[in-house]
Amino acid sequence: MSARKSERLVNLLITLLVARGYVPKDRLRQVIPDYRDAATEESFEKMFERDKDDLRALGVPIEVGGFDPLFEDEQGYRIVRSAFELPEIDLEADEAAVIGLAARVWQQAGLASATTDALRKLRAAGVEVDRSALDVAQPQLANDEPAFEAFWQAVSARRPVSFSYRSTRAATPAVRRLEPWGVVSYRSRWYAVGHDLDRGEQRLFRLSRVVGDVELTGPPGSFTVPEGTDIRALTGLLAPETPERTAVVRVREARAVALRHRAAQQTHGVEPGWDRLEVGFARTETLVDELVSYGPDVVVESPADLRDGVVARLRGTLSGAAGAA
Amino acid sequence: MSAPSSARDQVNRLLALVPYLQGRGAVRVDEAARDFGVSPRTIRRDINVLLFCGLPGLGMGDLIDIDFEAFEGEDVIRLSNADYLTRPLRLDTTEAAALVVGLRALLEGSGAPEREVVERTLRKVEEAAGEAAGIANQVELLPEDAAEHALRERLGTAVAQRRQVRLSHRSAVRDEVTSRVVDPIAVTGSGGHTYLDAWCQLVEDRRLFRLDRIADAEILDTAVTEHAELPPLDLAQGIFRPAPDALLATLRLTSSARWVSEYFPVESAVEEADGGLTVELRVGDPSWLVRLMLRLGGSATLVSPASLAEEISATAEQALARYL
């Protein structure tokens, strides 16, 4: 039956495309064989509605209109050629090769097939897409996040979503509701950024932490992204923070190599076997994580909160060990 | 991207097939199949649908004309009488955005000479896609660090030219800088970091070097040894691959230390009533575990091995003594 349906859809499309004005529904019923053969007005209507939806889902712009003052009931349909056709696109051979490469960036099944469809259209427009090698690195966007396509769809249709999200701190995932404004790729991971409906503020979610299916909870166009929203700026917390404070630490000779690498100042031999470093930092806890892992090779001189943080962490290790013993 | 009906798929293909065939005159079925990424059988089925399509009325002169003898006899398609379908349908939003984002990813990964052609292509595609490309603006690809990018390109060159590299590498586990000559095998990514997969002449074993821990890399004139022939690693399961006979440690994690079980492959994990976890993990180098435990502070304890737990306490005491 699907061949017959394809045939009907193509004939409907051609009829609307070649007509000079709006085509009334009863005219369509006369010229499309399946519509003509429909047993009742109701079954025709149903079939026609579904066909229109199918064509629109493919991106075919079917317009409704044509209220002729002389024929009040004559509502009709048309497809405007300029909105239907792919505009002229004239690609040089090297540009066509780039298109071939771009199509291979996607590993996600749905987007890979969308690029295949796009390539077909370009071929049909006369572009000879060349897949021969071009001296360009072949990046591949991360593909291990099953939730990606659902978020992509939600972002493009402006539909709110609901999903289970596993945070690092809790044993069980919690349900989160989000108006997704955009998706972001950073360091081979995908993130969704948007308005968190429960927290009432902007939040960022790592898609690999989404558990199970993503539910679309509203119709298309349910929300608008506030004007002037800069998706990239919202992801600021992904990029390293600007160091605003300076830590002064004493470091044993030749130790703490990663810390030395970042140090703004190094003074060698402040006492035998010890150097002094000045290191910029943004978040105290993050620097405590690093400094404490060097054990007795690093001693914090200032600031006081950093020093206290390291001392508290070391005491924690000792009391934890005592508790376990 | 919802599961489309097969009729919808077919119509989408037909709307590209008609202008494609008209623009090319005579096309072999297998050639069209290759260009469309489908089987020749699918193309034949598509043609059999088009035989019944055409202008309203669908009379003799209205139907799309397909040279039936050439089609049946020679498997060649000649399609005409469809001058109202000489252009394909516009790109829809998903197609346009997938292509535009793909091109941007290519742009991020391109060196200066190639950037120009990618930029040029991107401009033309964006223009042809029109509004449909708009959602691509909702997709951001944050670039990697410039220094790391340059290093990645340099190491990529070494892999391609099959030349040895002298690395100066900061080991996070051993907290030392070492210089070594390696046979590069591949540059690869996992878990948000890029690594050089290489045979290390210093330890005479294969190693992964994280790019942001490489202080310096010098491409040598010497060719790689046969060790570079090893197939590149599949990092899909992560980069921590301790030997199966490596030390087995048991950690009791409180809820705030649960992330450990996500970052490192654990052999077992048991939920505890307080929201914590007890995990077992393989440890390649004990000094790595000492550093991890110090970092975790009181939010985790090492249940076994006891000897290592003692070493951790001793290290913490020594460190604390410097503040007293």
Automatic annotation (TrEMBL), chain A:
Pfam families in the record: WCX (PF25583), WYL (PF13280)
Superkingdom in the source lineage: Bacteria
PANTHER family, A to Z: PROTEIN PAFB (PTHR34580:SF3), PTHR34580
Domain WCX, first and last residues per copy: 245-317
InterPro entries: CBASS_pafABC_assoc_protein, WCX_dom, WYL_dom
Annotated ranges, domain WYL: 147-210
Protein name as catalogued: FIG005453: Putative DeoR-family transcriptional regulator
